[in-house]
Amino acid sequence: ASVDDWVRTLGLKNVLPALEIDVTATVWPVERADAVLCCNMIHIAPWEAAIGLVNGAARLLPRGGLFY
Questions:
Q1: Could you report the per-residue pLDDT of 32-66, keeping only the tens digit for each?
Q2: Deepest in the core among 26, 35, 49, 51, taking most CB within 10 A?
Q3: Among candidates 41, 32, 31, which has minimal Cα distance to 64?
Q4: What contacts 16, CB < 8 A, 6 or more positions away?
Q5: Is 41 exposed, middle or buried (0-12, 13-18, 19+ CB in 10 A)?
Q6: Nearest C-alpha neighbor of 28 from the set 68, 67, 66, 61
Q7: Is 8 helix (H, G, I), strand (E, B) or coil?
Q8: What residues form DSSP beta bridges with 35?
Q9: Which of 5, 6, 30 is nearest to 19 (CA)?
Q10: Are the C-beta atoms of 32 and 59 separated by less than 8 Å?
């Protein structure tokens, strides 16, 4: 919700609403992305979630895509 609030506050037109994703799932509700942003997850989630996040980002991002 806070990311969506910042997008609205800044008037950004090129940022889609944030998605809640089960990173351990092999299929995510998005087919491609220019960037993946994950905040406050890795340090509190099981190791499988970190692995799923990296694998999922690799499936979505083109060469040169941003992974934060």
A1: 999 998 988 989 999 999 999 999 999 999 999 99
A2: 49
A3: 32
A4: none
A5: exposed
A6: 61
A7: helix
A8: 66
A9: 30
A10: no
